[in-house]
Amino acid sequence: MSDGSSDGSTAEPTDGPTDEPADDEVVRTAAEAAEGVVFAHYDQSAVTDLDVTVTFEEGVLDVDVYLNAPDDPDPDAVAREAAETAGEAVDELFEA
After folding, report:
1. Residue spans with biased composition (Polar residues) (predicted)?
2. Is residue 18's pLDDT more than 80?
């Protein structure tokens, strides 16, 4: 059992048009991306605990992933990958 935590930051505010995604859409996109990475590596039944915390305030994204799962693959590495992927998904959301 192990836990991993990683933060990702992205999406600085701009003075551009107001057609940017809503904060709740940003949070949902990041959380879904992080969970997708975790469950691509582990069967859902193998994950003892998963907590994905996403905040998006003033254009700053913060993603924390806590994962308690079997040691193969390394849960810390999977948690870091999940947080990074969440940030990338939000970057893509803003680029769309």
Report:
1. 1-12
2. no
